[in-house]
Amino acid sequence: MNRVQDLSKLIKLTGERARLDAKANGTYIVYKTDKGQIVREYANGEIIPIKDPDTPHEW
Hints:
This protein is α+β, with helices and mostly antiparallel strands. 39% of the residues lie in helices and 22% in strands. It has one helix and three strands, in the order αβββ. The chain has one helix at residues 3-25; strands spanning 28-32, 38-42, 47-49. The chain is globular and about 40 Å long.
């Protein structure tokens, strides 16, 4: 494999691991969608958009 493919695989595995850790700890992961929206994804599959990404904590 070349470096780009290796890096792409590592990024994918990191995201999968984050999902597993969030599920085990009852938390969520935060990521940016393809459309540029920052969202929280909970272990139950619920995805909530973050309205103001500059706010440190939005509950």
